TrEMBL record:
This is Segregation and condensation protein B. SUPFAM superfamilies: Winged helix' DNA-binding domain. Keywords: Cell cycle, Cell division, Chromosome partition, Cytoplasm. One of its GO terms (biological process) is chromosome separation. The keyword Cell cycle applies. Transmembrane segments: none annotated.
Length: 200
């Protein structure tokens, strides 16, 4: 077996074995000598064509390039999971939706829309998943933190930008009230939503 490996085979192997998206810079530098940007574009185009009719497809996200399971295959493979996927409460999903569609927002903004206090557990759950982060502070009394979604959030949903966000009712396949018409509630709802309704 030859020790030489073609750039497209090397990049394909890297994309298939890495758990995080690869940047174009990292893929260019993976080859010796490093690939030019034009050559890398050609390689990625070849890989996209090679995999276009398979259950895995090469996609570009805000974080870089990665292989992603097509939705129909993802739904069927879910039955093979031995462990039950974590479930997110309605409070978590509503908070995520508000941040995603209204960002940047403060906790006060979120509480004003939902009509109830936002618990630290809700915010921590979204931070632990890597979906939200503090991007600054509002120039008002107390300098409250401004929250926004992350590149990881977009990548997990297979999106390149916030403009590609699906309609609000499709986020996590949870039917949420329109944010403007959302009625206040007295307490956090116990209703939960499977996390596997969102791409991993």
């Amino acid at each position: 077996m030859t020790d030489k490996i073609s750039p497209d085979a090397l990049i394909e192997a890297a994309l298939l074995t890495q758990t995080e998206p690869l940047t174009e810079k990292s893929m260019r530098e993976l080859c010796v000598p490093p690939l030019s940007q034009d050559k890398l574009i050609d390689v990625l185009a070849q890989l996209k064509t090679r995999w276009q009719d398979r259950a895995l497809q090469l996609v570009h996200t805000q974080e870089g390039w990665r292989f992603q399971i097509v939705q129909t295959a993802f739904e069927r493979l879910g039955s093979l999971q031995e462990q039950r996927a974590p479930r997110y409460s309605r409070a978590v999903m509503e908070t995520l939706a508000i941040i995603a569609y209204q960002q940047p927002v403060t906790r006060g903004d979120i509480e004003g829309i939902r009509g109830v206090a936002v618990s630290q557990n809700v915010m921590q759950t979204l931070q632990d998943r890597g979906w939200i982060e503090v991007i600054g502070h509002r120039d008002t009394l107390g300098k409250p933190a401004l929250w926004a979604t992350t590149a990881t959030f977009l990548s997990d949903l297979g999106l390149n930008s916030l403009e590609e966000l699906p309609p609000l009712t499709e986020l996590g396949e949870l039917v949420l009230p329109d944010l403007i018409e959302m009625q206040p509630t007295d307490e956090e709802e116990p209703e939960t939503v499977p996390s596997d309704t969102l791409p991993n």
